[in-house]
Amino acid sequence: MSMLMIAAAAAALAAGEPSVPASPAPGRAAAESGVLAYPASFFAEASPSTAYDMVIRVPGFSFDKGTVVRGLAGSGGNVLIDGEPAVAKNDALDEILKRIPASAVAHVDLIRGGAPGIDMQGRTVIANVVRKSTAGFRGATTLGAYLLYDGRTLGSARVEGQWRWAGGRAAEAAFVLGYGPDDQLGDGRRIRRAPDGSVLILSDVDADGKGLRIWNTGAFETPLAGGKLRLNAAYMLNPYSAEITDRLRFPGGREYQYDTQDRLQAEVGGRYTRALTPRLALEAVAFQQWNNNDTKSRFEAANLVRKFEGDRKTTESVGRTHLRFSQSATLAWEVGGEGAYNKLDNTTTLFQNGVKVRLPAASVLVTEKRGEVFATATWRPTAQLSVEAGLRQEGSTITSEGDLVLEKSLSFTKPRLAVTWSVSPTTQLRFRFEREVGQLNFDDFVAPSSVANTGTVIAGNPDLSPQQAWVTEAAVEQRFWKSGAAVLTLRHYALTDVIDRAPIFGPGGSVADAPGNIGEGTKDEIQASLSVPLERFHIPAAQLKAQAVWRRSEVTDPLTLKPREISGLRHMEWDLHFSQDLPRLKSNWGIDVNKGGSNANDAYGWRDRAYRLSEIETRKLDTWVTLFGEYKPRPDLSLRVELMNLTERSAERIREVYAGPRDRSALAYTDVRDLRWGRTWNIRLRKSF
Question: For the whole model, what pTM was predicted?
Answer without folding.
Answer: 0.86
